[in-house]
Write a structure and sequence with these properties.
This protein is mainly alpha-helical. It contains eight helices and no strands.
Length: about 200
């Protein structure tokens, strides 16, 4: 379960809770199809926080909210995937800044599991920023030592496939989901034959 404050909860620091969240996601994917009921609730990306958080007081986080790639890269370098996931859970402008910074993180692949959980839970009308982040992450050049098919990658691909198959979802959401799936198919996370083709040019 994600810890909502920076204080210790049941004797575990928040940074430790983020690590536990990542590990629990990997274990869930190893058991088979992830159970959304086991996942932490999705962040409220469109909400404004009731009060200024500790992250919102941080100068680099504030600058990253403006979306400058240099500041996003600096934030990703400082925080890594775990720190950015912590910011994502806060929601609001901080959560959106965390999403924008994730593709710059050297260990961004560690976020696939959680992003897939969020895709499953968010209303399709609100999921586009998450899908766009996954597209950018999947488009990054692969490192030579990178694992070809980690469980979190497959879990995220399954979530995107479920979204892409819903023809009632807006095309501007389905199209990037399909783009992400094609990129993930190159990494063995999903079968290319399973990806919807109804939006392809005729």
């Amino acid at each position: 379960m994600f810890c909502p404050t920076r204080q210790r909860v049941f004797g575990v620091p928040k940074s430790g809770c983020v690590t536990l969240l990542l590990l629990s996601g990997v274990l869930a994917s190893c058991r088979g199809k992830p159970d959304v009921g086991d996942a932490a609730p999705p962040p409220a990306l469109g909400a404004q926080p009731a009060k200024e958080s500790e992250l919102a007081k941080d100068e680099l986080w504030r600058r990253a909210e403006e979306g400058d790639p240099v500041d996003l890269a600096r934030l990703a370098d400082r925080e890594g995937a775990a720190g950015l996931l912590e910011g994502l859970e806060e929601g609001g402008p901080i959560g959106l800044a965390a999403l924008a910074a994730l593709p710059f993180a050297h260990d961004a692949d560690a976020a696939y599991q959680r992003l897939g959980e969020i895709v499953r839970q968010l209303d399709p009308a609100a999921v586009l920023p998450v899908v766009e982040t996954i597209v950018k992450m999947a488009a990054r050049p692969r490192r030579q030592a990178e694992a070809l098919d980690p469980p979190g990658l497959r879990s995220c691909a399954e979530a995107l496939l479920g979204l892409a198959e819903q023809k009632s979802v807006a095309k501007n959401v389905r199209a990037p989901a399909i783009s992400a799936l094609r990129l993930l198919a190159e990494r063995g996370a999903v079968s290319a034959s399973a990806i919807p083709t109804d939006l392809d040019p005729k």
